[in-house]
Amino acid sequence: MEPKRPTAKPPRAETPSLFDSPESAKPHSSVARDSDPPRIFLGTSAFTADGWAGGFYPAGMRPADYLSFYATRFRTVELDSTFYRTPPPATVRGWHAKTPPDFIFAAKVPRVITHEKVLVDCDDDWRQFLSTMENLAEKLGPILFQFGYFNRRAFRAADEFLARLAPFLKKLPKDRRFAVEIRNKKWLDARFADALRERNVALALIDQSWMPRPWEIPATFDPITSDFTYVRWLGDRKGIESVTETWDKTVVDRRLDLNHWANLLRQFVEKRKGLKVFAYANNHYAGHGPHTVKLFRELWNKHEAR
Fold this sequence. Notes:
By secondary structure, the chain is α/β, with parallel strands linked by helices. The chain is built from 10 helices and 8 strands. It is about 30% helix and about 15% strand. The protein has an 8-stranded parallel sheet with strand order 1-8-7-6-5-4-3-2. α8 (about 255-270) crosses α10. The protein is globular and about 50 Å long.
């Protein structure tokens, strides 16, 4: 049975701003990000969106300054733009220059590799993408293979997909972190997890409309397949876009869901020495990615205070 999901509804209260005043927007200053637990890296999916100017970013701030300001609030960001195309090397070097030494970028693999060619005849695309992202140097964190839903015309079963995925994983450089996201819920089993674990690749744990969350998966396999885990708060895109497409405030109450995530991630880091967690909030999850992270921080700190 498909788990019940929250539906989009008007917020119960005004979503608070995440900055005190424009004067607090000092490049590379320490604000809320330094309250994050040492092994939890929190951020959003992309660092720009309609509705963030004047709500998250101070009114009048130049877009060229957004990333530097963002890095005062978060320790990491998931680059969504790389999904659409490999960026110019100069752009990547600019990202590196605008962020502090401890900032981490996660990057989505271009869709030409994951969706159009689906790992076939894409060696040149992969080399170009990886060499370009190396311009981030020490700031390059997890690289995400985000696969879409595959119908039976694409792959009749998980075995066919694994037969294509496993050889590709063997070619990945061992000095970088990689994660794999799938959106075929019946493929989530011990065999799939073991194929990722063999290469120290993380299984992306997602909160998305038709996929089970980790606590909804039967306890038949360990979802932690690497020395880090990768979390994506994605939500119901169609549902929330029927309510808003301007991502300036929360429109879905996600407190209960995020409380589950806080409990789960606390268990993960307490039971696994050295495990790191990279977690990213999409605007489609609740309406405003930065506020989703703010709420998660509050819930995490409440658990810690107990």
